[in-house]
C-alpha cells in the first residue's frame, strides 16, 4: 500500500446534527490530509442533501408527506440527544458560533470544495420519493454495488 | 489481495427497521457480488433473529419480561425515527409494497439463501436470556473472539 | 500483514450504556487477544470518561449547563432503548450482576489495565466546554488528524 493515497468511505445513514457533524469533520479532515473521501448518503442521511423549497411535481400523497416531514438540508438537523424541543440544538449552535467553530452547512460547503465525493443512495431516493433535482447539484447517485466496489478498496469504512 | 474474494463483516447492534434494512441490503448486495459476508447480531439486533411464539421454559421473571418486550423477528421492527406510534413504519412498509421493494423479512430469507453467515452473539444471548431454540435455525452462535478473528481479515467492517 | 499485530480503532460517539458496553467488550476482547486497540471518544461519548464531581472553574453558563446535563462517567449511562425512565437500565444492570457479568465501569478499568489507548476528541471537548482535568487521568487528547493517521493503518474500524 506504500505510496498510494489513503482512502475513506463513510455511510451517512443518520440526519442528526451531531452525527452529520462527525461525518463531515472526518470527511473534511481526511480530504485536507490528502486522503480520497467518499460519502454515501442513505435513508435519513439523504435529507442532509436536500435543497430548500425545491419540490418536484408528480409525487404521490405519501411521497409529499415524507417531503414535509423530513428536514430540508443541514439547517433542519437537530441533535440526537438533549434536543429538548429544539432548545438543546439552538444552545449547541450558539456555543459553536461564539467559539467560531464551523457549522454543519459550512462543513458541507468545504467538503464540496475539497472534492469529497458525495453519493446519494438510489434505493433510499426511491423509497422516500426524493428526486435528484431536489438534492445538491454536485452529488452523484449510486446504489449498493457502487458503494461496495469502492468501500472494499478503502482503508477506513464507517457507518454513521 | 488480488485474486482473493472480498469480505465484509457487519455488526448488527440495532433492531430498528431502517438500520436492519440497511444491513441486509448491504449483506445481500455483497453476497450477490460474490463477496463473503458475515453478520454478527448483538444486543437489540438479536431480536431480528427471533422466531415467533417460541418461548423456552426455565426462564427467570426478568428474562420472560425481556421476551415480552423485545420484538419477535423482523415484523416487529419499527423505524428509528418518525415511527409516530407505528404510523410512520406502516406508511413506509406500504410505500415499499407499492413500489415492489423487498421487505425486511424477504431480505433475511435472501441473505440465508445466499449463504450469508449469520452469527448470534453469545454474551447478548446470556444477558437477555435468549436461548438458541428461540432463534432462526440456520444461525451460528459466537462470541467476541469469533468476531474479531474474522473481522480482522475483512475488507469492510461496519457497526450498524 | 503476516507477523504484524492486528489493530482496531473504535470511535465512541454514543454514551448509551448498551453501545458503550459493546465498545468496551470489543476493546477488551481485542486487547486480550493481543491486538493493539485505540478508542476515540467524541461528542456524547466523552461523558463516559468524566470523573464524578470534578468541575473546573472559569466556565460560561452554557458550559456549566452542559456539565449538569451530561452524565458523569459510566454510572450515569442509560440504555438506548427500553430505558423506561431508568427501570429498563436498572433491570439490565441487575441481570448482569446476578449472572456475574462485568459492568461498564469494570470494563473501563480492564481496558485501562490492558493498555487500550483512550483518546478524548479535542474538538468535542471545546464544543462542550469539558477540560482535561474533568476526565480520567490515563487518557490522551487528540484531534481528527490523530484519529485518521492511526485508523488508516488498522484492520478494524468502527463508529459506535
Question: Which SSEs are present, and which pair or pack?
Answer:
The structure is a homotrimer of 160-residue chains.
Chain A: E1 7-12, H1 17-32, E2 36-41, H2 61-69, H3 87-98, H4 104-113, E3 117-121, H5 122-128, E4 140-142, H6 144-151, E5 156-159
Parallel strand pairs in A: 1-2, 1-5, 2-3, 3-4
Give the chain pair forming the largest contact, with residue counts.
Answer: A-C, 27 and 26 residues
- Output the radius of gyration of chain A: 16 Å
Annotation field: number of helices of chain A: 6
Number of strands of chain A: 5
Our estimate of the beta-strand percent of chain A is 15-25%
Low-pLDDT residue intervals, each spanning 5 or more residues of chain A? none
Shape of chain A: globular
- Cα separation of the termini of chain A: 26 Å
Give the overall pLDDT of chain A as a whole number.
92
Order of helices and strands of chain A: EHEHHHEHEHE
Spatial strand order of the main sheet of chain A: 4-3-2-1-5
Summing up helix and strand content along with how strands pair, one would put the structural category of chain A as alpha/beta
Largest sheet of chain A, in brief, is: 5 strands, parallel
Helix fraction bin of chain A: 25-40%
